[in-house]
Fold this sequence. Notes:
Among the domains are: 1-41; 43-99, no CATH class. β1 and β2 (12-15) form a beta hairpin. The chain is flat. It is 49% helix and 5% strand. By secondary structure, it is mostly helical. The protein contains 8 helices and 2 strands, in the order ββαααααααα. Strands 1-2 form a two-stranded antiparallel ribbon. The structure holds zinc ion (2 copies). Residues 7, 9-10, 24, 30, 33 line the site of one zinc ion. Residues 150-170 are annotated as: Disordered. It comes from Panthera leo (Lion). One of its GO terms (molecular function) is zinc ion binding. Keywords: Metal-binding, mRNA processing, mRNA splicing, Nucleus, Spliceosome, Zinc, Zinc-finger.
Amino acid sequence: MGKHYFCDYCNRSFQDNLHNRKKHLNGLQHLKAKKVWYDMFRDAAAILLDEQNKRPCRKFLLTGQCDFGSNCRFSHMSERDLQELSIQVEEERRAREWPLDVVELPEGHLEDWLEKRAKRLSSAPSSRAEPMRNTIFQYPIGWPPVQELPPSLRAPPPGGWPLQPSVQWG
Length: 170
Ligand SMILES: [Zn+2]
Ligand SMILES: [Zn+2]
């Protein structure tokens, strides 16, 4: 049967030999998928700036399709996409201004810190910190709908994953 090469970017596998691999890695489909992959890790602000500087792709916005895909030099984002993106940028900016507790971890003992934290939480108006927390997690832009993601990429349900009782390793 021979070995198989699995391409993470394209989410597909093929028989692993020099010819196939070379052909795949230089293929348009693969290069596109790779770009999309790396775009997911770019800062939302950088993407927004990029997209705002492009003129809209009329073809894509009219038909929902464009042969150039993510390599198109025009923007495939609608007004609404841009709006949502700028909201995300705003949220990311605010998240940075309200760093999570970890950042405040002082040099002292954990007990001291927990005590201080309890005091701080009870004295702070809860409306300031709590809703902010909930908005921090977001799936990256461009990801498929949640139900199409593999389980390992999904956010845990509220309260965490259920424990699998009788899993045997080995
Ligand atoms: Zn590939
Ligand atoms: Zn286009």
